[in-house]
Amino acid sequence: MSRPLLFALIAAGLVLALMSALLFQAPELLDRHKVLTDFDAFHIAGRLAADGRANAAYHIRDMLTAQREASGTQSFMPWTYPPPFTLMMQGLASLPIGLAFVFFTLSSFAFYLWVLRRIAGETFPAAIVAVMPAVILNLRTGQNGFLIAGLIGSFLLVSRDKRMAAGLPLGLLIIKPHLAAGVGLVTLLQRRWPVLCLAAAVALSLLGLSTWAYGMGIWSDFGSAVREASGFLAQGYYPLYRMSSIYAAAYTLGFGAAGAMALQVIGALAALGLLGWACLRGLAYRHLAALTCAASLFVSPYGYDYDLTILGVGLAFVIPDLLERCSGWEVLSLLLMSWFVCGFGLGWSAVVPEETRAESAGVTLIAPMLVFLCWRTARLLCRSNDHATGSHTNWPAAGAVVPE
Predict the structure, then answer these.
(1) Where are the transmembrane segments (predicted)?
(2) Does 395 score more than 60 pLDDT?
C-alpha cells in the first residue's frame, strides 16, 4: 500500500467527516432530511446531563421525547453507556452538534491513527486499509470505535514495555467495560499488580466523579436502562445486521433469544479461555496482543461493526509477520475477509431500504466470518517463513517493526 494512496484515503475520510457534520447540524444544506444517527444520541444525552437531567437519558420515554425533539424523527436509540461516558458527552454538549461531532470524531480518529502507526511502523498503511469499512462507519456515525480501539492499542503498546502507565488506558476503558475483558484478563494472568492498581484508581475516580455529578440515583437509572436493553435485544429490536456478536448471528439463524445467548456465553468463554491459555504458555507478545484484540470482540452480545476498529489494532501487530509468510493471493484473501466483516452492515444499509432493514436482515454473517478470519490468520501465522511464495520483499521484517 503506497503512502500517497493512504493519504488520499485519509483525506477522503476527512471530507466524509465534514459532510457528516453537516448532516448532523444542517442536513437541508445537502438537500437531505434529518436522520437520527449515533452521535445524535451522544449529544442529546450530554445535553440532558448539562440541564441537570442525566437520569432522563436512561429512561425510555424521556430519551425518546428528547430524540424526537432534536431530530423530528420517530427513531429511538436507548442510552446504556455508563455514567462516566455520559459525563464525557456532557463536556461536548455546550457545542453545536456539528462542531461537537467534528471535535470528537476527528480527535479520536487522530488518536487511533497515531496508535496504529506506533504499533505497525512501516506497515501502518496496510493496517488502516484492512479495516477501512469500519473507519468509514465511525467517520459517518460519530461512534466511539476509534476511542475504544485507541485505548486498547495504547494499553498493549505500553504494556509491551512492562510499564505501570498501562493502567491509565485500562482504567479509562470503564466507559465501555465489556471491551476491556481481554486486556484485563491478560493483565491479571501476568500478575501486573501495579498496572491493575492504577487501572482501578482511574476507574474508581471516573465512577466517583460521575456519582458526585449526578448523585447515587444515576446507578439505579443506569441499571434499569441496561435491563430494558436486554429485553430489546431478546425481542430483536436492535439492528442485528450491524451486530458482530455470536448472539446476533445465532438469533438470525433461528436459535431464539435463549439459545443465542447460550451460544454467546460459550463463545465468550472459549475466546477468553484461549487467550488465557496463550498467555500462560508465553506466546510471542505481538501474537498475544493480536489474540487479545480478537478475543475482546467475542465477549459481548452487543458487539457492533463500529467496534471492529479493534480488529485493526490486532492486525497492526501481526501484519509484518503475515506479509513475510503469505503469498500475494493469501494477503488479498485476508483483506477481502476483513472488508466483509467490517463492511457487512454498511453494505446492507446501502442496499436495503431503511424502512425494511430490520425485517429483512436475513442471516447476520459478521460473526461467522470473523471467526473464520481469526482462524485463518492464526493458521498463516503458524506457518514458517520458507512457505511464503509471494513477492513482497519490500516490506520490513516483523521483528524490525514490532520487537518482542
Answers:
(1) 92-115, 127-158, 164-188, 195-214, 246-272, 308-324, 331-351
(2) no
